[in-house]
Specification:
Distance between the termini: 26 Å
Largest sheet: 6 strands, antiparallel
Shape: globular
Radius of gyration: 34 Å
């Protein structure tokens, strides 16, 4: 399984139709016109709002001499109704700003302003003064020799700044130069909000290190071709130094339908002029893309419609005799999909799944339609479009289908006023037979809410979407949403808290005050106090444990409860993929650690880092800490790496420890150990934590001594071990065993190799390596005291890499099973 990046909360919202909602005019306009062209008129698109949303419209006119900048935003809003209002933020002559704002709910499309008439009257001629100022309205840089303008009488200063407008689908940095009656950076006259727009200004000169701002967002939608061209707006982001703006649009047209994928954001890629590419031309299935990378101005990735690179064909063309099912769907295609007559010359039916991944896009599109030739080649060999990777599969589904699911975890605390929250997820391909699961848990505590989310694969049986109120508010409350499904890929597609969240009504306050806390660490001694609702008579103080589905959290909670006791969960022990429990002892020393055992054998383990991650966690016993330990033995051309993560009794250790117990020339034995006391702190991702600290000696000069080499975890080395020529100066061959126990591992490691005469022992009487207890037996000279019980070990799961065996169960007979697999590659 190869999961994509973890789940994230986005600031971009795409509205979908909903019953009993308002329809509003929708769209944005930003233009510069000559004053002589006013009044201006326009038309916009429309959208269906979410429940309780109203319609808004915001119009701003910035006049600068003979020119005027018009900024218009229409759409849905959660703000309260507001009658139509005209505001003169700065009066002319000279630079002036006027706005029109409105919010309404009394009928559909009530935001119906269609011209500048309500806020525009032709100005009377101003008496000219003596000051001349450069004149500029530009989304890019103003020219160095901008045209000069004679200012009105009484205007004594030249303005030069950047007017920033954000919100309502607008993201503009407008560079302005013109006439002002006084000095300063105050074109906005103190205004910070105009309707749906946040406004600000900046009059500092640009620096060479100034970062670029770009349009940002992802849109994936299927539309009828008759609805094209599609128009859109997105959010914005500030880029890193040196980054540019990119935009990528992919349009897949299939008969009467089209799939539109839009990606905008920052990029490190080099500038690229706008490019339209026909990956497959129609008729029949067609694919066209638009890509661009730019740095010449803020928000230069401002394509807002498909009209720039695609128009419907004038005619369908001649029809042939081939008939194919037609389908364009993010779900499964129906078994009896509608048939279409293919264009003349189209002789084959395409049936595949197109995957688009990258730049925040994760789409699996099922496609059926007409093609001029056989094969799985809808994209004509294209594998990358902008930041989006492209692939396709055309194998028909079978009972052994591996389902794709949304995947990721999220744990955050937010103010209740910020809900509902929305998110997007990564993706994962599950094992055969697995389904998709999603678990959402909301714990409300006064003005705050803790959100825990898990999505991924599961072996559990299907379960319809279910909302459960484990503890009702006011005060501390817990609500969950759970679902398991297999009816289609990515069926675990919940993307917001809407199904399990309604804004609570105001509770009558009581007399009890309780400390308020949500924390993965310790709650502060002087946590803020909260007035509990009437009837709440006790203060809760405990630790809620959540484990499973990629979640491992110990959440410390303080708040209001209607009765005493440690029963916040109201008896609940399992919520979807999560095991839940609570502990209210005065100071529960609770810690959760990564847990797992690793065993690897390969030639290059001391040169090339290997992945060291686990899929499991464990809750420690009181007083325990987390540990991770690595032991490396390299005899030359063969090496063994053993690792352990889990809970441990505490050790005195301020930082990770790397030790070289014996080193070149000869057998290399080195170790890494780390003990820590914060949640999941044993989180090293690879063996580089050990390898990066090892010495890198020059290649040795070969000598005359030859020694057998062997390293295995099955006991003694065999008589038929391979031989190696030792480095010059070595005249001794080592033969011995190292007994290792602890951290889920119990093994006898057989070792043979070259060793300097001056150092016969590999461990030099070391008896403890991290979590491992170790004992060495070489040349029959084992210490009388044995630290280890070398009876048959319990069964452990071992991970063996690079030797033909991917996963093996390690029990008492494991050593005999390994012999056929461990050999020189």
């Amino acid at each position: 399984m190869s999961p994509s990046p973890l789940l994230a909360v986005l600031g971009i919202t795409f509205l979908l139709p909903s019953v009993h909602t308002l329809s509003c005019q929708w769209g944005t306009i930003e233009v510069v016109r000559n004053v002589s062209e006013l009044p201006l008129q326009w038309t916009t698109s429309q959208t269906d709002c979410e429940l309780n949303e109203g319609c808004q419209e915001t119009l701003v006119l910035v006049e600068n001499g003979p020119q005027v900048k018009l900024v218009l935003s229409k759409g849905c809003t959660t703000r309260e109704d507001q009658e139509a209002k005209v505001t003169e933020h700065r009066a002319g002559p000279g630079l002036s700003i006027t706005s029109y704002t409105r919010v309404c709910r009394h009928r559909d499309f009530c935001n119906d302003l269609s011209s500048t008439v309500p806020l525009w009257t032709s100005p009377s001629d101003a008496v000219p003064g003596s000051l001349r100022c450069a004149l500029c309205f530009s989304n890019g840089d103003c020219p160095e020799n901008a045209p000069q303008h004679i200012c009105p009488a009484g205007y004594t200063h030249c303005y030069k700044g950047v007017l920033k407008l954000r919100g309502g689908g607008i993201a503009t940095n407008l560079r302005v130069q013109g006439c002002m009656p006084q000095p300063g950076c105050n074109l906005l006259n103190g205004t910070q909000v105009i309707g749906s727009l946040d406004v600000s200004e900046n009059c500092r000169p640009r620096s060479g290190m100034e970062i670029l701002e770009c349009k940002k967002g992802n849109i994936e939608t299927i539309r009828d071709v008759s609805d094209l061209p599609v128009h859109w707006t997105t959010g914005w982001q500030a880029c890193g130094i040196g980054e540019g703006c990119q935009e990528t649009v992919v349009l897949i047209v299939n008969g009467p339908q089209a799939n539109v994928v839009i990606n905008k954001g920052c990029t490190k890629a080099q500038d690229q002029e706008p490019r339209v590419t026909w990956h497959r031309a129609g008729p029949g299935l067609s694919v066209v893309s638009y890509t661009r990378v730019c740095r010449h101005r803020d928000f230069c990735n401002d394509l807002s419609t498909t009209e720039a690179f695609w128009t419907p064909p004038a005619s369908e063309g001649a029809r042939g005799s081939q008939q194919c099912p037609i389908c364009l769907s993010n779900h499964d295609c129906p078994e009896n999909a509608p048939q279409q007559i293919c264009p003349a010359g189209f002789t084959h039916c395409y049936n595949g799944v197109v995957s688009l991944r990258g730049g925040g896009i994760f789409t699996h599109l099922r496609v059926q339609g007409c093609m001029p030739q056989p094969g799985c080649n809808l994209f004509n060999g294209t594998q990358k479009i902008g930041p989006i990777g492209v692939s396709e599969k055309c194998n028909s589904k079978s009972g052994a289908h591996r389902r794709d699911c949304n995947w990721g975890t999220l744990q955050i605390v937010r103010d209740a006023s910020e809900l509902p929250l929305k998110w997007t997820a990564g993706e994962i391909t599950c094992d055969v037979g697995d389904g998709c699961q999603e678990t959402v848990m909301l714990i409300k505590n006064g003005p705050q809410v803790n959100l825990v989310l898990s999505k991924g694969c599961t072996t559990r049986e299907d379960q319809e979407a279910k909302v459960t109120e484990h503890r009702a508010g006011p005060g501390l409350s817990i609500t969950s949403y759970t679902r398991v499904c297999r009816h289609r890929d990515f069926c675990n597609d919940l993307s917001s808290t809407v199904p399990l969240w309604t804004s609570p009504s105001d509770a009558v306050p009581g007399s009890l005050r309780c400390a308020l806390c949500f924390s993965n660490g310790d709650c502060p001694e002087n946590a803020p106090q909260h007035i509990c609702p009437a009837g709440y008579t006790h203060c809760y103080k405990g630790v809620v444990r959540l484990g499973g589905g990629g979640i491992a959290t110990n959440l410390r909670v303080q708040g209001c409860m209607p009765q005493p006791g440690c029963n916040l969960l109201n008896g609940t022990q399992v919520i979807g993929s999560l095991d839940v429990s609570e502990n209210c002892s005065p100071r529960a020393a609770i810690l959760t650690c990564n847990r797992g055992v690793m065993l690897q054998m390969a030639r290059s383990l001391s040169q090339e880092p290997r992945e060291w991650t686990t899929n499991a966690q464990e809750n420690c016993k009181p007083g325990e800490v987390c540990q991770e330990t690595l032991l490396l033995i390299d005899v030359g051309h063969k090496a063994l790496l053993a690792g352990s993560k889990g809970c441990s009794s505490p050790q005195r250790q301020d930082a990770p420890t790397v030790l070289v117990h014996s080193g070149p020339p000869g057998v290399l034995v080195a170790s890494y150990a780390w003990f820590c006391s914060s949640i999941l702190c044993n989180s090293a991702q690879s063996s580089s934590v050990l390898l990066d600290s090892l010495p890198r000696p020059a290649a040795p000069v070969p000598g005359s001594q030859q020694c057998p080499i062997c390293v295995n975890f099955g006991g003694s080395c065999s008589q038929g071990s391979n031989f190696i020529t030792c480095p010059n100066g070595i005249n001794h061959c080592y033969t011995g065993k190292i007994y290792v126990q602890g951290g889920g591992l119990s093994a006898t490691l057989g070792v043979q190799g070259c060793m300097p005469e001056s150092s016969r022992s590999l461990l030099n009487e070391v008896q403890k390596i991290g979590i491992f207890s170790v004992e060495e037996d070489f040349e029959g000279k084992m210490k009388e005291h044995l630290l280890l019980n070398r009876g048959a070990p319990a069964c452990y799961m071992a991970w063996v890499v690079g030797l033909g065996l991917s996963v093996a169960l390690w029990c008492g007979v494991f050593s005999s099973l390994l012999n056929p697999f461990f050999h020189d590659p």
